[in-house]
Amino acid sequence: MSSILKVGEIQDPTNGNTAATIDTSGYLFAKLPHFCIKATSVQSFASSQYNRVEFQSTVADTHSFADLANNKINFTSTTAGVYQVHFGGKMENISAARVGYWIRKEGVMNTGPYIGYFEAESSSASYIFPTFSFIFPFVAGDFLELDLYHTHGSARNSYIAGAELGFFMSGVRIG
Hints:
Blueprint: E1 9-11, E2 18-22, E3 28-30, E4 34-38, E5 44-45, E6 51-52, E7 57-61, E8 66-67, E9 72-74, E10 81-89, E11 91-94, E12 99-108, E13 112-120, E14 126-128, E15 131-138, E16 143-150, E17 156-157, E18 167-173
Antiparallel strand pairs: 1-2, 2-3, 4-7, 4-18, 5-17, 6-16, 8-9, 9-16, 10-15, 10-18, 11-14, 12-13, 12-16
C-alpha cells in the first residue's frame, strides 16, 4: 500500500512560518539559514602582514548573520549548526611567492585560532581569484573573519571591477 501526500508548502505548527515549499515540478525548497557578504570597495593589503578583509555589502542574510561594521559573520543559538562555507577574493597585479587566506571562528587576527588556511600562488604579475569551500560546525558565539597575508613585497589591491563577488564569504546551514 502506498500513500500520496499533496502539499505545496510545509509550515511550523505554532506560528505558521513556512519551512519548505514544493514547486509545480515537484522540487523541494527547504528554507535554510544562509548568508553572503561581499566587498564593494577596493582594499589595499600591506605586504608580509595580516590584513582583515573588509566587507561593505550584504547579498543574502536570512538570520542577521552579517556584521558589516566589524567585517564578520556571527553565529547565535538559533543559527548554530553545521555549515557549508565558501570564501575567496580576487587580487590584482600580484606576483607573490604566496597569498594566504586565513579564516577564523574566534580569537584575533594573527593568533587565531584559524579553522582554515588556504594558499594560492601567482607566478606572474596578473590576477588571482582563488575560492575555497569547507564544512564546519559552529556554536553560539562563533564568528567568521577573513584575514589575508601576501608576500608580494609591496601593498596590493583587491580587484572588484567586473566581479559581482570580488571578495566574499557565504554559507548555508546543512545540519
